[in-house]
Design brief:
Largest sheet: 4 strands, antiparallel
Radius of gyration: 17 Å
Number of helices: 5
Distance between the termini: 50 Å
Number of strands: 4
Order of helices and strands: HHHEEEEHH
Structural class: alpha+beta
Strand order of the largest sheet: 1-2-4-3
Shape: globular
Length: 158
């Protein structure tokens, strides 16, 4: 069992180790300090039962396990993001307390690599593993994913 996913996983690289812990608290609705993972073939799995209703995609030692994250691999970039937080009590109730959060969604290519190369995405050449299968989001067949994109100046202004 390990907690390396808080330093060596894509979620912590994307948001920060502290934000990854906050995400775990929202996802599992427990103290994130008790979440332990095990590494299997470059992926971090957890036995903690998430608040979702989908079946576990993996069984280890007779116990159901859910994919939490992947270990960072060399090559490519991880784009830092800011995690969204509810802005008021109403948002908190709707999007955290009463929500059934889902496990992380990863874009896995048919060659086993992770992520979406920008040049392929702009050309519409997405070769994603399981692209013709529904995403395991409980009883939903579609969902909206918000991705905030911003640009930063290449040169520092004086």
């Amino acid at each position: 069992m390990t907690r390396d996913f808080l330093t060596d996983g894509y979620i912590s690289y994307t948001f920060s180790p502290r934000a990854a812990e906050i995400y775990l608290a929202y996802l599992f609705k427990i103290d994130p300090a008790v979440v332990q993972a095990f590494l299997h073939q470059g992926a971090y799995f957890v036995w903690n039962h998430p608040t979702i209703l989908t079946p576990a995609p993996f069984v280890s030692n007779g116990h159901p396990a859910w994919l939490l994250d992947y270990r960072i691999k060399p090559g490519g970039s991880v784009v830092p993001q800011q995690i969204w937080f509810p802005q008021g009590q109403g948002d908190w109730r709707r999007y955290v307390e009463q929500a059934t959060l889902q496990m992380p969604l990863f874009f896995k290519n048919t060659d086993g690599s992770l992520g979406v190369p920008l040049v392929n995405a702009t050309a519409g050449q997405m070769l994603l593993h399981g692209a013709n299968q529904p995403v395991p989001f409980s009883d939903k067949s579609t969902t909206k994913i918000r991705i905030g994109v911003c640009t930063s100046p290449l040169h520092k202004r004086s």
